[in-house]
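Quick log. Single chain, no ligands specified.
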Amino acid sequence: MPQERFIPKNPVFDFLTKRKSDSPILWSQYICEALYNREFGYYRKDKKRTGGDGADFYTSESLRQNIFGRLLKYSIEKYFSDFGKSLEDFKLCHIGSEPGMETIPTEISMRLDDPKIIPPRAAIFSNELLDARPFDRFVFKGGRWNIEGIFIVKTRGGYIVKTELFNPPEEYSEILDKYFRKAMIEDFRVDISLDAISLFRQICSQNWKGIIIFFDYFRSAAQLCNFPSGTARTYFRHTSSNDILETPSGRDITYSPCSDIFLDILREFGFKKAIYESQESFFIERASEPIKEIIAASPLLDPRKRELVQLLNPSLMGIDFGAISACRF
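-> predicted structure:
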């Protein structure tokens, strides 16, 4: 059944209601404006988004001691060494970097609007890029998958927003059938971003050699089939909410990308050793030496040791974040 609610006046819905169309607005369209509109989008604002006081969420890169950068640099160097190669022969590229954050020195940083042109020999890494892309929401209802959209009616002081279900575009149907057959349960929700998939394909399809490492809120398709309400959520002042219509453009909107989809894209474009693992497993496997050094040299309350715990502890970032990695030489 359609659901209605009142949303106070805000610039996102002011913009969306300027459209002269009777078609529904998909969640990806709403999220795109809420996050990236050049006038009022959340990611366009000159504000502190990541870190401690006054920010909305932490990332591995926002931790002050930059242990993440140290472990990542070591992991990349070891990755090349295991294949008899050297990082010195490749360009280090950070895709989706936040302003003022240099995770690894001498890197090439590609920001939001920068063209994603990959050097011929590259070591590419990214942190929480794919989960920040606009996504759509799907509901299994009446024996089939439906895409959820919203209709907006302007009213005094705000808007009446009504959600309804529609047949999904063909490209989404193929993804749902391939990866989410176990989620074909009445009222089950799945969140998918064609935008993130397109961006990742653009990166992988270019003619370059090297390694690629993406950290994100990844979950496998099997894991996502244990989230019947989907994974869409917002963050504001380090508090999460499942209401993505709350204070549009005033908070981060995110979801958990399906790792299986991105691993298959890597394999499609000739990458080898494509794997998904927890952030904890990734660093313990590839950066054990600097981890041991920090543990041995740091006093109990040393900020470097506390930061290491934040990155690796399964109850903190160790399991919440995952990594997909692969190589093409």
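The mean pLDDT is 88.
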